[in-house]
Amino acid sequence: MEIKIDDLSGGEVIRLLEEHLADMYSNSPPESVHALDMNALKSPEITFFSGWHGDELQGCLAFKQLTPEHIELKSMRTSKSARQSGVATKLLIHALNIAIDRGYQQVSLETGSHDFFSPARKLYEKFGFRYCGPFAHYQEDPHSRFMTRALVEKFA
């Protein structure tokens, strides 16, 4: 899989993000959806990655700079055709290694508390993320789970 920094101009990426937002709104109340729309993902503090197998989009992941040392993971999504194939793991490793190369020391995320989000939470737990309280602008929310981990050494 080729992973690249993406400018969010391709139709495949737009469709995947629209699917992502639709799923977020169908699995959480609107006030508990923290997924970013296309315009927000194009802001300068966001680095957006897309993963490709040939010309087929496999998934995406972004991170947002919160401070010069701290980032937040955003918009993790695997295409329906690539689910359970390791795409999310590859995207996560790639993004975390880029974050380490850029000098970030901590990565945090918000994900849903419902069963729909269980595979994502298990992936993050596998990579050493631990549950924590709200960070940045977030507030306690029964529909959210917050996780964090230090960025110390690169992932293989």
Strand order of the largest sheet: 1-2-3-4-5-7-6
Q: What percentage of the residues does DSSP assign to strands (E)?
A: 25-35%
Largest sheet descriptor: 7 strands, mixed
Q: How many distinct domains?
A: 1
Order of helices and strands: EHHEEEHEHEE
* Average pLDDT: 94
CATH superfamily membership: Gcn5-related N-acetyltransferase (GNAT)
Separation of termini? 15 Å
Low-confidence stretches: none
Radius of gyration: 14 Å
CATH topology: Aminopeptidase
Number of helices: 4
Keywords: Acyltransferase, Transferase
EC number: 2.3.1.-
Pfam families: Acetyltransf_1 (PF00583)
Protein name: Putative N-acetyltransferase YsnE
Notable features of this structure?
globular; Aminopeptidase; 156 residues; single chain
Explain briefly what this protein structure is.
The protein has 156 residues and is an alpha+beta fold. The chain has helices spanning 11-27, 38-41, 87-101, 118-126; strands at 2-5, 46-53, 56-65, 70-78, 106-112, 130-132, 144-150. It has one domain: Gcn5-related N-acetyltransferase (GNAT) (Aminopeptidase), CATH 3.40.630.
Report on this structure.
The structure is a single chain. The chain contains 4 helices and 7 strands; from the N terminus they run E-H-H-E-E-E-H-E-H-E-E. With 156 residues, it is an alpha+beta fold. It has one domain (2-150): Gcn5-related N-acetyltransferase (GNAT) (Aminopeptidase, 3-Layer(aba) Sandwich), CATH 3.40.630.30. A hairpin with a 2-residue loop joins strand 2 (46-53) and strand 3. The model has no long low-confidence stretch (mean pLDDT 94).
